[in-house]
Amino acid sequence: MSDYYKTLEVKKEALPGAIKKAYRRLARKYHPDINPGDKSAEDRFKRIQEAYAVLGDAEKRKAYDRYGDADARGWFPGGGVQDFEFSGFDSGSASSFGSFGEIFSDLFGRRRQSPSSVQKGQDLEYQLRIPFLDAVNGAKKRINFHRQATCNECRGSGSRSGSGTKPCPECHGSGQRKQRRGTMTFATTCGRCGGSGRTQPRDCPACSGTGLRAVSEALTVRIPAGVNTGSRVRIPHNGNGGLNGGPDGDLYLLIEVEPHELFRREGNQIFCEIPVTVMEAGLGAEIEVPTVQGKSRLRIPAGTQSGQKFRLKQKGAPARKGRAGGDQIVQVRIILPTLADRRSRELLKELARLHPENPRAQLGLR
Fold it and tell me: CATH class for domain 4-108?
């Protein structure tokens, strides 16, 4: 005996809305289209259908709760057990829980298409590694990739011109396949014709009936300024070809940015470290610093300490997708002079006598 409540993972006192919600969740999870070739998932899906066909109907649920067995006598008014047809895949079904089209729309945002219907081509992804400065400033790149283009001979139909259609040999033109389980008959959309009831011979010699052919492409693409690792750049109509007159899919560039020897990026902020002399830090100076946009001038005030940071406004990565443009943060690092002669050492000693500060005194150290 099947426990339909256990099958749908709900309690016996569950309200109809909760039962419907549980059914839709499990149907999406175990649907054969989501689990191709998985026999256990297919069997579980059938049990879920069977359970909801009973629990989703108020009268059948009442009888099930009373007799506790899907095959019990007295299930329907009049005494005997009656067969009923469960047509969960039929968009015109009068089933109380809705059609397969609804479920499939929930999963993919579109209804199932027959093999002969117009279909957009599959999108493709291409991993592209680019230099740091190209990512910040933008660039043009030449890429080579493979894709499946629409066959020119059959225009993506897979059939020679004029071959026409014929009744589907799998469902004999009905568009549905029926399976009997216990006292119920389940009607499912025919996978061969997609429910249309008609098939088209796949006899195009140029593409072996697939409607597509493998091609190698060379393409110059524009990388917009401001991309970063993880960015996706869409190149329209350069994915796989469409079928039966459908448009080509898109190509997506998945960006990976190479590290730079001087610059580091956080969001749109650019960071770098610049060496300065003791004299420049002590007396102040105007120095030249590199930026991602070229060289720039930076004023170092007198008394600058090592590690101190300065901001160059609007010298960071440019704005992209509504985000504000960044700045460049320059951190100075004081470099001690090389004391190669006695005179230099004497001057440094004189400077020490004039300024006998101990920067460790505030820590209680000598």
Answer: mainly alpha
Each residue of 207-232: pLDDT tens digit? 888 889 999 999 999 999 999 999 99
Closest CA to 180 of 86, 40, 42: 86
Contact, 300 vs 287, CB < 8 A? yes
pLDDT tens sequence across 89-100? 333 333 333 344
What is the CATH code for 264-363? 2.60.260.20
Give the rounded distance of the alpha carbon of 117 from its chain centre: 26
Q: Which of 218, 219, 198, 210 is nearest to 241 (CA)?
A: 210
The domain ranges of the chain are 4-108, 124-164+200-257, 264-363
**CATH pick for 124-164+200-257 out of 3.40.470.10, 2.60.260.20, 3.40.350.10, 3.40.1410.10:** 2.60.260.20
Beta strands in 260-308 (DSSP E): 264-266, 269-277, 285-291, 294-300
Quick one: which of 33, 75, 29, 30 has its CA closest to 54?
75
What would the two tokens of residue 275 be? 């060496």
Q: Which two tokens stand for residue 101?
A: 């089209």
